[in-house]
Amino acid sequence: xxxxxxxxxxxxxxxxxxxxxxxxxxxxxxxxxxxxxxxxxxxxxxxxxxxxxxxxxxxxxxxxxxxxxxxxxxxxxxxxxxxxxxxxxxxxxxxxxxxxxxxxxxxxxxxxxxxxxxxxxxxxxxxxxxxxxxxxxxxxxxxxxxxxxxxxxxxxxxxxxxxxxxxxxxxxxxxxxxxxxxxxxxxxxxxxxxxxxxxxxxxxxxxxxxxxxxxxxxxxxxxxxxxxxxxxxxxxxxxxxxxxxxxxxxxxxxxxxxxxxxxxxxxxxxxx
Length: 272
Ligand SMILES: Cc1ncc(C[n+]2csc(CCOP(=O)(O)OP(=O)(O)O)c2C)c(N)n1
Ligand code: SF4
Ligand SMILES: [Mg+2]
Description:
This protein is α/β, with parallel strands linked by helices.
């Protein structure tokens, strides 16, 4: 592959690119290494995590941020991040984060968990952290499936959603109803801020970033537990074409897990 300078731009000459294709200048976001990662094309999780670390950078809190990751596809993406990452046992991130925050009250402490990790494997952990009003921020990447282990049903899978073991869609009589975890957390006394965003289009990414910023601000003011659920695409686990997954998120997942602020202020009008 050859490169040459054309004006201010570096032009790549390859067999596969048209001659006038250009490599734009370095848009590498601070804190995110764009080296190879192992998530699927079209996965929403890297977008959600990138949004969180960009908020942390804007806060100027990079050096004192300690994140605690659960176990799921997103865990591998922690290798692409230049922030402190602790690895929790499956479902236990809120308890580990509690210990970190109590020992290091000046740190900005967040957890990153999937729906299988948080709502199946470790539901009591996040509920008790919220009930105690722990001054931490828990981020949920909700794709409605155990993605890493093959796309099985989780407690957030919506009615009618196809998963590996509900190929004809989740059925309430057979499989029960989904847990609306964001609404449940919002109903708890120790929760100062709760919101549900999504990364299926640019508008929702921007909105989700405002939610993350509001959650971190809540923690910085010492107001108690903050929670941001982010709906993420999982075309592999949903068994659909990659390009269909943003609309599938909007039509199927967000129809039940409705996007908006669920508790607390700090978000501009237009978000509920
Ligand atoms: C105690 C324990 N049980 C089960 C597993 C297997 N396991 C690893 S990742 C995973 C799925 C996680 O799903 P989710 O949290 O929704 O994250 P996603 O992969 O969808 O991002 C499971 C069940 C494990 N590692 N440890
Ligand atoms: S299986 Fe789903 S959650 Fe996991 S990397 Fe692929 S698209 Fe993302
Ligand atoms: Mg999941």
